[in-house]
Amino acid sequence: MLSKKPICILRAAIYVCGGLAGVFQLLSALLSFDPNANYFLGGAILPIFAIVFAMLGVGSAVAFAFLNKEELPQASRFAFLPPAIFFCALFPAVLSFANGSSPIADRLAVVSAILLLLSALYCLLSIFRNDQKHRGILALLGFSPVLALASLTLFFYFDKSIEMNSPLKVSLQAGLLFGMFLFLCELRRLLGRPLPKLLLGLRLSLFPIASLGSCLLVPLVITGGCKRLDYLFGALLLLSLQIALLFDLFSTRKNS
């Protein structure tokens, strides 16, 4: 049997690397970002450190997932995530019109808002009605967060006010895509086709990856470096997922 020491080291490395990625991304937002161009300054080294630590966090998460012998928690026990999703759902549709996005982005914003509201309902039922009787409706609603995050990714992709390869857009889309695949694995578990190691790897990897978006966009919007409030609420959605998953991952597990 594998010693618990390497497992504990890997778990610590995920959070340390994810935290450092967030710190370096925060410093990058404050010291190395050009708000007029929506890019980091030429030769800036802080964003490179942020990406390196995020990748180290993902690598540690993958190693932890495949070496860990514990069973995953069956469901989240934390009820603050649905209000956070509900809160974020109100803004893509409203803000896209106010900011003059493309017609495609406007339609995607409305679809995203509806799907996010259904996602909030899914999270609530997962917390309070996670039993065999409600498994069918949970599985049906389980498609909503997958589709919501896919729709949000497309919404930001078709936003023409920010360059396609700007770190604002790339970091946010990366976090949303990781979240989408995470909820897809959660859906497989509900449908009786679980991929437990992949699910655990995605749960852990989301923390360092989402840090690149949340720790860049939140300070930039607060300091006026980014004028788009819909990017702020995208980052807040990532942040709420990070917090919920951190609590969930520290909840009680059963040995397999």
What does this structure look like?
By secondary structure, this protein is mainly α. It has one domain (4-68, 78-249). It contains 10 helices and 2 strands. Strands 1-2 form a two-stranded antiparallel ribbon. The longest helix has 28 residues, at 4-31. The chain is flat, with a radius of gyration of 18 Å. The two termini are 13 Å apart. Mean pLDDT is 83; it is low at 252-256.
Please tally the helical runs, counting DSSP H or I stretches of 4 or more residues. Answer: 10
Tell me the span between the first and last alpha carbons: 13 Å
Helices and strands, in order, run as: HEEHHHHHHHHH
Characterize the biggest β-sheet. Answer: 2 strands, antiparallel
Q: How large is the share of residues in beta strands?
A: under 5%
What number is the mean pLDDT? Answer: 83
Secondary structure: helix percent: over 70%
Rg is 18 Å
Computed structural class: mainly alpha
Oligomer: single chain
Number of domains: 1
Q: Per the principal axes of the C-alpha atoms, what is the gross shape?
A: flat
Number of strands: 2
User: Uncertain spans, ≥5 residues at pLDDT below 50?
Assistant: 252-256
Order of strands, main sheet, comes to: 1-2
